[in-house]
Amino acid sequence: MTNYILENRAVIAGIKRACEKYGIRYSAFSDEWIIRLTLGDARQFVLGYNFDCNGQASAAIARDKAATHDLLKENGVASMRHELLSTPDSPLPNKRLVDEMIKRHESIVIKPVLGSRGENVARFWSADDAMRYMESSNIPSWAIAPYEAIVSETRLIVLDGVVSIAYEKTNPREIGGLKMYNLHLGADAKKLSISDLDADMVAIARAAMDAIGLRLGAVDIIKTAEGEMSVIEINSGFSLEHYVKQSAEYREEVELFYENLTCRLFNF
Question: Which of 194, 249, 259, 263 could make an SS bond with 17 (beta carbons 3.0 to 4.6 A apart)?
């Protein structure tokens, strides 16, 4: 890792604010990618954007698109359907499932099960093309989803059942017939007032977090042309660095969030 990639991160600034205010000892390693926080006999770690407040299994479920969908569905939470196509133990994608979904929908979306940032996500109108795409890669686990015409995507940052930050992802980039709402791909973010959020959207986000047992997470909720809302994914470790680049106001909001999150690690 190199310093120019990691310098001026809002997450570090927010953690340091808490440390200075409350006497928490701050120790950094690997260009501040690993942080050890100590207060008396208590010790907490931060790795990148992963904090010591989510259980290991819950965080792993959030990273797995198919597992997340299964648990949300079981708990009655509206969720974009994701089905498992392959695993490291069964690396050959399930062509029968691809064929079935192609027949029922105009097109499908193929995604790495554990992927993020919109990487290697692709839309297909042909089962054969989808199979060739997966078989030509070295990604061991794939998921399939029906294509949805998304008209908006909103991210809610939830901590202990409370929405702390909310923003709508705007100006998506179209890549391969897909609207990509990822900020690092060029989409923008519009801050939303938490008090003005749609009550149903907040309820979906809270229920999604509860369904997989997360204290901290970023819940991405999409809306279709028909006005239906559903969870497209949940991230237990997430970056807000692209968000803060848009304005000084956004940066202050995020630094304060990380300051409060650091305090929560030590239960105050």
Answer: 259
Total domains in the fold of the chain: 3
The predicted-structure confidence for 38-56, as pLDDT tens digits, reads as follows: 999 999 999 999 999 999 9
In the sheet with 50-51, reading across from the earlier edge strand, the strands are 25-29, 34-39, 42-47, 50-51
> What residues make up the domain containing 42?
3-53
Q: What's the mean pLDDT when you consider all of the chain?
A: 93
- pTM for the model stands at 0.93
Report strand pairing: 216-224 vs 150-159.
antiparallel
Distance of CA 266 to the CA centre of its chain: 24
CATH number, domain of 142, equals 3.30.1490.20
List C-alpha distances in Å: 240 to 20, 204, 219, 245.
22, 21, 13, 9
Burial of 193 (0-12, 13-18, 19+ CB in 10 A): exposed
